[in-house]
Amino acid sequence: MDIRSLTEPVVAEAIGRTHRHDEALPGGGPAGNARLTAWVGLVLLVLFAAELFTLLDVRGLVSWHVAVGIALIPPALVKTGTTGWRIMRYYTGNRPYRRSGPPPVLLRVLGPLVVLTTLAVLATGVLLIVIGSSGGRQTLATVAGHTLDLTFLHKATFVLWIGATGLHVLARLVPAMQLTMVRLTSRRPAGAVPGRYRRGGVIAVTLVAAAIAAVVTVAAVDLSAWHARVVRDRPARFTQR
User: Fold this and answer.
1) CA–CA dist 184, 66 (Å, integer)
2) What CA–CA distance (Å, rounded) separates 28 from 35?
3) What pLDDT, in 10s, does the model give residues 142-201?
4) I want to staple 79 with a disulfide (CB 3.0 to 4.6 A). Which of 40, 93, 131, 196 is the partner?
5) Do residues 100 and 22 lie in contact, with contact meaning Cβ atoms separated by under 8 Å?
6) Is residue 195 within 8 Å of 27, Cβ to Cβ?
């Protein structure tokens, strides 16, 4: 299998030229799963964009950085669940999912990387909140003379996540928009997929859980030490003005 045969299906799906034909069953089936995954993916995209924005001024926006990071957890878990469900149904031989077929090979390789890096960056972020600023600097291991701490691991997994998720967004944004926003605004929408209100309920509960988790975390955690450490860690050209 050459590079062209690997990339052509990915590009065709990414630009919306081709798509999988998912069956709509009484409970939603593959079509319902695809729509729920697409909606949750768009929620994650908005939250991830907000999280990246906080990096422009971590000193002033550290509370927002923590809040958005915590808010990312519920939708990330839901999307992991919907994609995992589809994978399980496909590989266990469920006929509707088998007829829909798998994504292109490159996306099948990229998918687990996106999931693992997303969960890793969120998990290390939560641990940093739990153990605090000083705990995040404690050495966990030494590799080739370089000390590794939890703060470093959080930054490293973030870099890996940026690469994997950036490629994933390029490949999946147009299909997700076609399944969600385009159908909402279309004057001639396709036949409705059963389970619409149930999917809406899942998204609503996810958003409420994300908001509650963010508010409770920011209220319960003392972030003053993080503010102080950000100031100490800033380069001299910023602090000596």
Assistant:
1) 33
2) 9
3) 776 677 888 888 989 999 999 999 999 999 999 899 888 776 655 545 567 899 999 999
4) 40
5) yes
6) yes
